[in-house]
Amino acid sequence: MGGVNPYIQKGPGARADKPFTVTFKDEATGAETVVPVDPAAFAFGNLGLDGSVLDIADGAGIEINHSCGGVCACSTCHVHVLKGGASCPAATEDEEDELDKAPDVSTDSRLACQCVPNGTQDLLVLIPKWNRNQVKEAAH
């Protein structure tokens, strides 16, 4: 799934125009993965808003649960932006409504599908251990 929720307005802000990095920290394993993002070469547009944290993670092969396909209709892609959050526009009212349904919400909570960094700062994103879909289908 993926696409656009016609009932949700896109938030303000523009996609980055200069290179930056996003470090994803998996709370369950402690593993950190640094993803260099060059907006001129990175394949955006797969999940969530173009250039969103979810879009970047997906393009780098990093799993973040996203039951709604990144259209701001659930809270499963809830992450904590520990550093660099100031480079992302404030959460919209729609995003805040979905975050109300998420566990462990704090001041650094964002929906990965809606959080679009502008590239002025590097990000450190914590993927909470409960944000893991433990069910995997075997290859068909």
Structure keywords:
140 residues, alpha+beta, 5 strands, Ubiquitin-like (UB roll), 5-stranded mixed sheet, globular
What does this structure look like?
The model has no long low-confidence stretch (mean pLDDT about 85). A hairpin with a 5-residue loop joins strand 1 and strand 2. This protein has a single domain (about 20-125), classed as Beta-grasp domain (Ubiquitin-like (UB roll)). About 10% of the residues lie in helices and about 20% in strands. The protein contains 2 helices and 5 strands. Strands 2-1-5-3-4 form a 5-stranded mixed beta sheet. It is α+β, with helices and mostly antiparallel strands and about 140 residues long.
The structure class reads alpha+beta
Low-pLDDT ranges: none
In the CATH hierarchy, the architecture is Roll
Number of strands: 5
> Topology as H/E string?
EEHEHEE
Let me know the average pLDDT: 86
Q: Walk across the major sheet and give the strand order.
A: 2-1-5-3-4
Distance between the termini: 19 Å
Into which percentage range does the β-strand content fall?
Answer: 15-25%
Count of distinct structural domains: 1
CATH evolutionary superfamily: Beta-grasp domain
Largest sheet: 5 strands, mixed
**Helix coverage percent of residues?**
10-25%
Backbone shape: globular
